Amino acid sequence: MKLNRTATAVVAGSAAIALVLAGCSTDDSTDATASSAATSTAADGTEAESSAAVTFEEAYIKEKPADKGMTGIFGVLKNNTDEDIDLTGFTIEGLKEGTTFEQHATEDGKMFKIEGGHTIPAGGEFELAPGGAHLMIMDNDEAMEPGQQYTIVLNFSDGSTLTQEIEVRVQPAGEEDYGEDGELSAPGHADPDAGVDDEHAGH
């Protein structure tokens, strides 16, 4: 009887050890699988970013108070393909209904809406800058304060779409503003007597 108790204890102990080892093996396998999945996801994200037809770098929205109906979007559009691509349209998610979105250019000190969209040259870039070509948020009476984040959706002529976060920033002092008829109010661009109280000013 004593021998039987000993044998039973040995068997029970062996079973417990086997269970512990099995548990460790399962944990190790789970950790390895999770690590592999995380690595794969990171790699996929990097590959997707690098293979995007167009990227929008150094992008920002110029801040505006609620009593200004418009503001500008600036940055650098980079074309990673061997064909010219047009920016056919864009939107900012979350803005109130009735907000409109336009593409503008500037010539002889005056800004104007363009039709057809800005063209990003093959393998090159297109700069959206104060006093030059830029994007406009129009007919909007919401305050857009520095540090706020919005989602911009850009549509391109090749059928691709780029969606990314974009921050509201204070535009550096000395950058061009716009007068009531779209005339640039910075020195060297416009008549110093031109008014800047219209809603076009400071976009």
From TrEMBL:
Pfam families the UniProt entry points to: PCuAC
Source superkingdom: Bacteria
Ranges of Acidic residues composition bias in the record: 174-183
InterPro entries reported for this sequence: Lamin_tail_dom, LpqE-like, Lxx211020-like, PCuAC_sf
Ranges where the LTD domain occurs: 44-173
Region Disordered, residue ranges: 171-203
Key words, A-Z: Signal
Signal sequence range: 1-22
Name of protein: Copper chaperone PCu(A)C
The species this protein was found in: Corynebacterium xerosis
Organism taxonomic ancestry: Bacteria, Bacillati, Actinomycetota, Actinomycetes, Mycobacteriales
